[in-house]
Structure prediction request, 395 residues.
Amino acid sequence: MLGHSTFRLADGVYWVGSRDWSRRLFDSLIPLPKGTSYNSYLIVGDGGEALIDTVNPGFELELEEKLRGLTDPGGISYIVMNHAEPDHAGAIPHMLKIASKAKLVTTSQGASMAQALYRVQPDRVMVVRDGEAVNLGGKTLRFIEAPMLHWPETMFTYLEEEGILFSCDFFGSHLAGGLYSDEVEDLLVHARRYWGEIMMPFRAMAQRALQRVEKLDVRLIAPSHGPVHRHPKQILEAYRRWAGGETRRKVTVVYVSMWGSTELMVKRAVETLEAENVEVAVHNLEVADVGEAVADLVDSRAIVLGAPTVLGGAHPIAFHIAHLVGSLRPPAKFALLLGSYGWGGGAVKQLGKTLEGLKLEVVGSVEVKGSPTAEDLKRVAEAAEALAEKVRREA
Ligand code: FEO
Prediction:
């Protein structure tokens, strides 16, 4: 395991988290090409100490060692659980043992989750409501409920004297490296991907949270994944755009092809869209990093899905991505569906049905038997032209 260092972020505020350089998958779903970090923070006041969030299971002893380098964990008064997901709360049972007098501070829903997930007994829990605070002596921690960012129990913690917002998953990025976001050259690339994977389904809640954050004097944002934002303007502006569903003249194309027929149709659609001055991001699902496709969906105005039929339905890889898109609720307004089959169709119909909940306008759908003819490809081009027209008009 690399590095057991701690970092001082402000007077009495220390990063004591862990960097997971080797992790490549999150929630058994999300690829992590750059690993991730589990940021935990120690706050030292004149009259008490608090730990904000913990670390992923397996990193408990690293957290303990870091804390012992700064304080006696037995003297910690509060362990703040902003969020109950195990990547931040998995070390809570260990921490409650070594911080034997500490109370677990969480929302009422968090208390129930702490019991269910970590068997934390009620006498160790201090439930806080929105706007309540604890004072550590010159360090006031104010709690702000932030439901669904990322789970219903989630809250932020705001350190008033220093203007530090501990936002847990919100404003995060899956990066093992980099303490400060201004030291990461392509921070927004990673933050956008993370937004798409984690926060995009909750845009309305994100907008509400951003309105509340704007009322605070936030000088530093300390999320629980990835670098700390000591110049919060950049990430705040990006979150305003993404939460607002701002899109560009851009189409994300995701497809899979078995024998090249669907791919021919996709190529014709892509060439047509590009000729119509529309930005196109193409992902062949056979080799694609799904996280990159999701990142492109964050600001795309339309989606093109292409898949052959396998046993009466869409190819399972395409069905998986269609289901994922339906769950992540990107802001796209238009779609084009393409498919091919050898002896029985059905892919396009199934893809359309899977996306029904998104209320996308399906501008065109083309499904062909066998290899597409010149006439078939003309139909694809016409459908892509109609899509380009919609995408441009929406600007
Ligand atoms: Fe990083 Fe929702 O946990």
Observations:
- The chain has two domains: 3-243, 250-390.
- The longest strand covers residues 300-310.
- The mean pLDDT is 96.
- Residues 374-393 form the longest helix (20 residues).
